[in-house]
Amino acid sequence: MAQKITFSTEKGIAQYPWLTKPDFAFDSAGQYKVNLKMSPEEAKPLVDEVQRIAKEEFGEKAKSARMPFKKDPETGEVIVITKSRYKPKVCDSAGDIIPDHATPQIYGGSQLKLAGTVYPYKQNSNNVGISLQLAAVQIVELATSPQSNSVSFAPVEGGFVASNDNMSAANDNDEIGDDEAVAGDSYNF
């Protein structure tokens, strides 16, 4: 691939975003990343372009190349996978860049558009693929809280109900102050 090929997506729903700080869980250097869930129709132009680039770069090996997208088995939606070692620029819905100090926390469930560079790689003759290197994010609609807090249950009559004074009662039982806690201490609850 002689020239740099860029990509941009239609809007989709963010999954597992690490956009304001890097994720060090699987990479000691850290990665900025986000998956974007899109309808098959909206993802088709990007999927077709990535497959074309793979075929151009790898020939017959393109069929076994790792691709930066997968299909959600439950919904049939396409999940586009992006990452970068560098912090992406973040824009608002008007296309204006948001300064780092003013960038909001971006939670899963936010509606985003993504842009960056298509990067074919070949680690050895059997390990080839395409990655999407994230360079910019546009916030179309910001989720106000993490999706993991969206769990809800129907009320159970006669069951336990928390009251607001539970926290103060728990704090009254603390025997160790914050400055007395030692790293590595374990507590049995």
**CATH 2nd-level architecture of the largest domain:** Beta Barrel
Tell me, what is the CATH class of the largest domain?
A: Mainly Beta
Taken from the alpha-carbon principal axes, the silhouette is globular
Total separate domains: 2
Span of the ends, CA to CA: 58 Å
Strand order of the largest sheet: 2-3-5-8-7
Structure summary, number of beta strands: 8
Largest sheet, strands/sense/barrel: 5 strands, mixed, barrel
**What's the number of helices?**
2
User: How does the helix and strand content classify structurally?
Assistant: mainly beta
CATH topology of the largest domain: OB fold (Dihydrolipoamide Acetyltransferase, E2P)
Helix-strand pattern, N to C?
EEEHEEEEEH
Calculate Rg over CA atoms. Answer: 22 Å
In percent, how helical is the residue content?
A: 10-25%
Unreliable stretches: 166-170, 173-189
Estimate what percentage of residues fall within beta strands: 25-35%
* CATH superfamily label of the largest domain: Nucleic acid-binding proteins
